[in-house]
């Protein structure tokens, strides 16, 4: 493990997911302790996307936007909101020059699949319909996220392709949760890795899917048999992450299906470790996410 990251492992608070409500509070305390970047070069506005129910979003608009990204927070479909994601959504906007629409989708177990996906799809449609208001071209809209949010981004790309929804120009998938079956080597073997391990992943999928197998690829994108026609993608995996092998496999399958893919497996890292901003490898990861998105939206 990267020594700068390893030094922080003992400081992580326990998150067992035995009590999702308590774990949300613990996660929020940890996440909001991270300082956000300077947002003076952008406008930040809370909006509500109409729907059943309405979906809260926070829009980060740099003064010279290159495009937009619908951005989805992590937290295993159980934790996270606009405030916990603020430091990262703002950094994505700053590093990429994109309008970032951060989504507060409904959480499990109170709202299992497909609630979160429906919320994200509503925001994608709203973003396309309001592209002119946001100051971006409707063909320069990407989707992305971290962990559970990365899985939702991949699922939304599949749904938009199948339903003839808004055109997504790019997928930014950072350590996404893609496969509820958890049969890969990393999913079976990583029982004591920091922050995310086999048991915690199992609990997250159990809450999200209400204790049942994924009913469709929109719940677990790795179950999709046809990955052709998807937007170009960037996929990032962490070496000591249960999601690692399904991330690499999904990227390879998209490549075989004719999708343009950039894949980066970050050695020495673990799930979510890019949040440790003092580590050089974390800064490189965040810079790369912003740079990849900037190039994709300018292409």
Describe, in plain words, how this protein is organized in 3D.
The protein is of the alpha/beta class. It has a single domain, classed as Alpha/Beta hydrolase fold, catalytic domain (Rossmann fold, 3-Layer(aba) Sandwich). The protein starts with a helix and ends with a helix. Helix 6 (148-163) links the parallel strand 5 and strand 6. The protein contains 10 helices and 8 strands. 38% of the residues lie in helices and 18% in strands. The relative contact order is 0.15.
Q: How do the strands and helices of this protein lay out in sequence?
A:
Elements: H1 3-6, H2 20-31, E1 42-49, E2 55-62, E3 68-72, H3 82-96, E4 99-103, H4 115-129, H5 131-134, E5 141-146, H6 148-163, E6 170-174, H7 185-189, H8 198-208, E7 233-240, H9 244-256, E8 261-270, H10 280-298
Parallel strand pairs: 3-4, 3-5, 5-6, 6-7, 7-8
Antiparallel strand pairs: 1-2, 2-4
Offer a quick outline of the entry:
With 299 residues, this protein is of the alpha/beta class. It has a single domain (3-298), classed as Rossmann fold. Helix content is 38%, strand content 18%.
Descriptive keywords:
299 residues; alpha/beta; 8-stranded mixed β-sheet; 8 strands; Esterase
Mean pLDDT, to the nearest integer, reads 96
CATH topology: Rossmann fold
* Global geometry: globular
Total number of β-strand segments?
Answer: 8
